[in-house]
Amino acid sequence: MTPRDASEPYGNRWSDLDRPPLNVGALRRGLVREGALWSRVDVVQRTGSTNSDLVARAAAGEAGEGAVLVAEEQTAGRGRLDRQWSAPARSGLFFSVLLTPREVPVARWGWLPLLTGVAVATGLSRAAGVDTALKWPNDVLVTVGGAERKAGGILAEGAGEGGVVVGVGINVSLRADELPVPTAGSLALAGAVSTDRDPLLRGMLRSLEEWYGRWRAAGGDAGACGLQETYAAGCATLGRTVRAELPGDRALVGEAVAVDGDGRLVLATESGVREPVGAGDIVHLRPAV
């Protein structure tokens, strides 16, 4: 692949045949409709973090529920605990959405990143033809060369009164020599039938709209709307013995046996006790050695 000439404008859709820019007009036509969740779709060429930008827009009253912000390149993307996430321009999908589930009790908002994981996995299965799995609480996994690799992550952050910004980063066309760490992967390396980012993004957002609507209609009850069961079915963490590293150099080891009604991972310890751990409680979740 010929590298993009730095003097060439990003607006030239054919500046990189392997990684063309997103077609914002087509995305808006496909997603922003009367009665739909998505109210606005913006694409920026480069930013530090779409999550930070959308949180700021919400605070300034410049974005409402259903706002979608997408970046062609993200230079300071963040995962949980401010872990960095970066990739070459137009090699992935980096986007954030603003949700305001005011009719859902705040105690149930912890399901939003898990709900997004289910939506992302469903959307990618349909649009990319690639099997994915979810690592609790926020990683999207693919299989590359028989090994599980992280191809994406999800981060939810509060946005003012009654709002949540959920960010998603997915490695789409990264080649092996571009991976940030050996344990990373991409849709392309996992054998995706398509790495065209426009239908991939539409597929994920339509799936997110569907699941969010179900969950909201059920008052955030993940069991009643089928979310809890669907998440468990696609969660690679369940059935494995893991080590949950907690603040204060504490750790809990046990078999991951369930995801409870609050979205917490339930570990069955050697002492026979079932201990739930929330996403906000852990520093790392690793396989037990």
UniProtKB/TrEMBL annotation:
InterPro entries per UniProt: aa-tRNA-synth_II/BPL/LPL, Biotin_CoA_COase_ligase, BPL_C, BPL_LPL_catalytic
CDD domains documented for this protein: BPL
Database matches in Pfam families: BPL_C, BPL_LplA_LipB
Record EC number: 6.3.4.15
BPL/LPL catalytic domain residues: 27-216
Keywords recorded for this protein, A-Z: Biotin, Ligase
GO molecular function: biotin--[biotin carboxyl-carrier protein] ligase activity
SUPFAM superfamilies hit by this protein: Class II aaRS and biotin synthetases (SSF55681)
Top class in the EC scheme: ligase
GO cellular component, one term: cytoplasm
PANTHER family membership: BIOTIN PROTEIN LIGASE, BIOTIN--PROTEIN LIGASE
Protein name per Swiss-Prot or TrEMBL: biotin--[biotin carboxyl-carrier protein] ligase
Species of the source: Streptomyces toyocaensis
